[in-house]
Queue: 4 jobs
Job 1
Amino acid sequence: MSTRAIEFGAALRKARRSKGLSQAELGGDKYSGSYISHLESGRRVATPEVVEFLTRRLGLSALEWGMSSRADMSRLDAKDPIEDLLVAERAWSDHDWDAAWRHASAAADAATAAGDSGREWEARYVMAQTKFASGEFAEAAVLAEALADHQTARRFSVARAQALSLASISHRASDRLGWAVAFGARAVEAAASCPPIILAEALMSLVSALSESGHPTSESEPYISRLIELAPQLNSDHSRGMISWALLPSLPAT
């Protein structure tokens, strides 16, 4: 069941009852009472044609349904993106870049059609990660930059920080070091109030960019100190190991 279908079903039930109709009466000669019941419970998804029939049957306008256009109605039967997204994430973990890209793209399209901006951002983030992991760094940077300005990233600092960190490491991998530093700095700013693991990721992207681009160690020192302070707060050995790896080029030789 999709959330949108459940919400529509609840609105349908309320409207039907307000008109004093049974489910069979609402369906008339076209739809069975059982089908109307499935719509009201969210177990079935109404197509735009069904919505138009019910609108006429109940004597309601599209605005009374909370749908101002046929495009809004068509979102009811949009494919749920979750299955493609789950497959994409599994394919990514298995290094199957083609499958990860294909399913993440399908999930992003489905989420867009359903008006689910959060799920769309998540799917496009997997797409950007896939481009980076497959060595297409410039393409990953373009996708990550767009994600940083996405409406979901404007609402959630974690999403914005993750997108900016990915943009930074993608630019660094494609030898655009000035851009890597700039996006790393923006990532650190966005992650200021985020959980330690997100802030650590942003700090690592900036420290690595500063080191690789030849900035003096004095510029990196404040961020290195913050990383060292954060390390004990991370439960993952992998995350602590990544911090140690990121700090190696910045530490003085012994």
Job 2
Amino acid sequence: MAHDNATIVRRFVEEVITQGKIDTTAQFVWEDVVEQVPFPGQGPGLEGLKEVLRSMRAAFPDLDFSIHEQICEGDKVASRFEWTGTHKAEFLGVPATGRFVRVWGVVIDRLEQGRIKDTRILMDSLGLMTQLGALTPAKA
């Protein structure tokens, strides 16, 4: 069962996020999915998630989301990921920079009956904002 859950998460990432088939999100995610760590301004449930995915794909049209490692236990799947993309439109308040970014993170998904019921994403937002030039590291 846990192996099946890992496969479902991988298919969601490949088809919905990387290929941009946002309209198929409901095949992988429950309507009342709970994002434990929502993006700033993210609305609730499936529609809120779809809106975040649309804004990411608009901001990074060449978005490529890859899972490098997964750990499964019971109904949970932890996926260590990395995504890359070129910043072509406003994202989280930062106007398009044309910069290529590489961002790492971990997402913990809990599945029920083959779909994601709740999720918690821990992403290197500080690294993302630094790569976009929104934050300038202090000199040591």
Job 3
Amino acid sequence: MNVETILKTKGAKVVTITPETTVGEAAKILKRARIGAVVVSNNGNDVLGILSERDIVCAMAEPTKRTALPEKAVSSLMTRDVLTCEPGDTVQKCMSIMTDRRVRHLPVIHEDKMVGLISIGDVVKNRLEELESEAGFLRELIAS
């Protein structure tokens, strides 16, 4: 199974914000969309960074950043070194990247353009579906 399969199931819509968006507005977007991260992009195709709930919580824990946090630009908090994947990458490869690097979201890049975003939840759901399918096949094999 590969990333392209996940995107066909969940869709390729990615919520993006610009680097100038305030952290307060980004938090509202995260809440409204019920998501854990937004991609920071100027045009919806490039990936300048990613802002996650974790980034906001970590900033809240630092007294020097906390005071004017809602008014700060997301560019001051976003993760700039964004790990990505490609549509042809296997789910196992993405799961390994997410586990090893402790990230929960991977933008999907094809020909230098963002074509989707997968989360650890998408990867786990896909893997569970694979395991259920394999178990069903084995049950049928044993029964026959």
Job 4
Amino acid sequence: MDLATAFENIKWLSVLGAAVSSFLIGGIWYGPIFGRAWMTEFGFTEEDLKKRSIPKTFGLSLLLAFIAAVILEMFIGAEADLVFGASAGFFAGFGWVAMLLGILYLFEMKSLKAYLINAGYCIVALTTMGIILGIW
């Protein structure tokens, strides 16, 4: 399939749903599940996080999740089903994103814990996005 055809076949409602799912997973992942550990690993305090612009941070995060969902949708194609969508999302998260983050974290001398928190989010978010894109 060529790029123009892939773009024409995008299911925009499922892309929006996938983007929102990634955003919500991030809120849970970096909130009640791993929020404190993430803050400790990266040296953030509550005061540091209060200094950021919430509209900018959350708005751009949602935009970036939307772009990621569009690319994943184009990658898996209009014929994808739940199994293929989940598999493609998982392998994109694990095989590409987590492995490349691993390289960065090695050179940046970040902890294994920091890596597992961020890579884990990427794997869960992309797998969920793939499921949503595959079933819609």
